[in-house]
Amino acid sequence: MKKKKLAIVSDHAGYFLKEKLLKYLIKNQYEIKDFGSFSEESVDYPDFGHPLAKAISSGEFELGISICGTGNGINMTVNKHPGIRSALCWSEEIGRLARAHNDANICALPGRFLSESEAFLIVKTFLNTDFEGGRHKRRVDKISLKMY
Length: 148
What we know:
The protein is about 40% helix and about 15% strand. The chain has helices at about 15-25, 45-55, 70-80, 90-100, 115-125, 135-140, and strands spanning about 5-10, 30-35, 65-70, 85-90, 105-110. Strands 2-1-3-5-4 form a five-stranded parallel sheet, with helices on both faces.
């Protein structure tokens, strides 16, 4: 099975978890780009989320992982970009359904509220779940705003 091209990002609150996930993903031979942040020094999550979202929106990367303290700020940021369907995933089941039913292309994680093992399981499930299509495709196709 071909591994997907991934991108990952965090703010300072998600830095520690991002570093752990990076090691896991590299060990599992994913091609991955780290968009930062690169320390626990306080930063603004939009400065890191926008480049990640642009890279996925452009097709440079297939899927992304974004992490901030609650997952909300980074999730709101990346969802501003065309073609981005980021889901805030706090459990394995949410991660699975985000891919299977919503064709999510970014998994947003609440770094301050997950254990490492929970985060690994969510990410593993997210990355290994395919979009089901069918009735879900019709709904996903209606997400993007159109001028009426």
